Amino acid sequence: MKIRRFFAKDMRTALSQVSAELGSEAAILSSNKVSGGVEVVAATDYEEALEHSRQPLSSTRGSASQTTGQSTEQSTGAAQNQSAHNRLSNNSLSQNPIHNQTSVHQGTAEQHGLNRQSDLYNPLQDDSSAASTLANATTNHLKRFLNKQSAGAKQRVTPEPSYSESEQTNVKSMPQAPIPEQQQSFPNIEWSQEPTLVAMREELNLLRNLLEEQVSQIAWDKQSQASPVKVALTREFKRMGLNESIYNDIFAQCENERDYECAWQKALALLSKKVMVGEDEILTRGGVVAFVGPTGVGKTTTLAKIAAKQVVKHGADSVAMITTDNFRIAAHEQIRTFGRILQVPVRMVDDEQSLRDALNHFADKKLVLIDTAGMSQHDERMNQLMQCLAHDNINIQHYLVLSATSQSSVLKDAIKLFSPLQLSGCMITKLDEAASLGEVISTIIEHQLNVIYTTDGQRVPEDIRVARAHHLVSKMVWLTRNRQQTEQLATGTH
Ligand SMILES: Nc1nc2c(ncn2[C@@H]2O[C@H](COP(=O)(O)OP(=O)(O)OP(=O)(O)O)[C@@H](O)[C@H]2O)c(=O)[nH]1
Ligand SMILES: [Mg+2]
């Protein structure tokens, strides 16, 4: 496209100049009244340039008209005919520059929808009104052109919700018009990704989160208002892994304390009271004592620790060891080794009769310790063991060995499995390996089990001690604080 600016004393002269210099195909882009005359901006090849810039839109329209049917095809055809007619009339009037110019403009205007009389240049009007009409027409024309362009772009982005399925099928089955480059770059938009819906969904999610937070804040505030001390205690006890069922009545006795530290100390003291502990009854009373419990919790090791203590306290003659663990050679060897080191006799039994015989054999011993194989409730040898141990006329005290590292469900299962043996109490092993004691303490309180010993290492006989409630509770607090500090250090919030 070639654009030129012309200056003349009036519009008529200016148009003559345009026609003379740019030829009959020139188009007036703008005209202004300036001091001493008029200024006209004209261009050649304007139509081609315009057609070229309209090309993607026309292609889109072409494909759209195919889908909408015959009437659009007819109107497009009519427009083409009109355009051809305009060119013919331009040629026939090429001798007269004024007519020529009028036709040029008229053709362009009609092609782009400027059909109103007021939009067209009329050479019979005076120069100034002609110039302003021409300027308005050009501006309006450009505005409409740009509007159409942006409307076309919008049409391409927005999916067509009104398409019925059959219409969509028809569209698909039709020969596809070449897709303009601009259109190809748009992603295939699905309904679920419709931007407005996505934005609304996100907005709703935000509102829901806000609402939930507000409601929980209100609940928390209410609780805090009721008793800030109780709220703080609840948070700490939960952190220690204790069950709610065991501390509700404790807090009822502490919530009137003004000072949190006093309430905290009082709550811990009350908790300690709930932990039932025995005396060093095995060593003081003696008798026949069996160690039962899940696999690998430390039954044999704990038995050896107690046997060693008995040896130290009352001599090697006062104690004997029996094992029902005759399935595994290693287990058998383990207890025999302990016997050899401690110079304590060991017998292996496999049924009720052999147990009776062994007990008769060790009748002169102050303490007889029975080791059992750890097994699950699904093990068929479990019944055999139970029959062997649970006899009215054999006086055996059964102690359940529990590991502090076990989950509360494992602890509860073990208690349920061995409670038919009328447990005299329990021993808690592996305190040194536990990350938290809340679960084991909650479980023994709930089942009202007497804790006799606790162990905190593998060394025989050093790593065993008579259970003390305050020791268990303070260890639980220490473990929790320690874990918190480690977490804070790890997250950098210390
Ligand atoms: N850290 C630590 N390890 C322990 C403790 N008590 C026992 N152990 C170790 O736990 C492992 C299993 O101990 P055992 O005494 O064989 O356990 P058990 O219950 O007799 O095992 P089964 O006879 O197979 O059911 C051994 O490696 C012990 O050294 C303890 O208090 N702390
Ligand atoms: Mg064992």
From TrEMBL:
Nucleotide-binding keyword on record: yes
Keyword Protein transport in record: yes
Membrane topology: Peripheral membrane protein
Compartments (UniProt record): Cell membrane
Gene Ontology CC terms, in alphabetical order: plasma membrane
Source species: Pleionea mediterranea
Low complexity bias spans: 58-77
MF terms in GO: GTP binding; GTPase activity; signal recognition particle binding
Region annotated Disordered, chain positions: 49-112, 148-186
Protein keywords: Bacterial flagellum biogenesis, Bacterial flagellum protein export, Cell membrane, Cell projection, Cilium, Flagellum, GTP-binding, Membrane, Nucleotide-binding, Protein transport, Transport
Compositionally biased spans, kind Polar residues: 78-112, 161-173
Biological processes per GO annotation: bacterial-type flagellum organization; protein transport; SRP-dependent cotranslational protein targeting to membrane
UniProt domain SRP54-type proteins GTP-binding: residue ranges: 286-478
Annotated ranges, domain AAA+ ATPase: 285-483
Name used for this protein in its record: Flagellar biosynthesis protein FlhF
Physiological role: Necessary for flagellar biosynthesis. May be involved in translocation of the flagellum.
Family: Belongs to the GTP-binding SRP family.
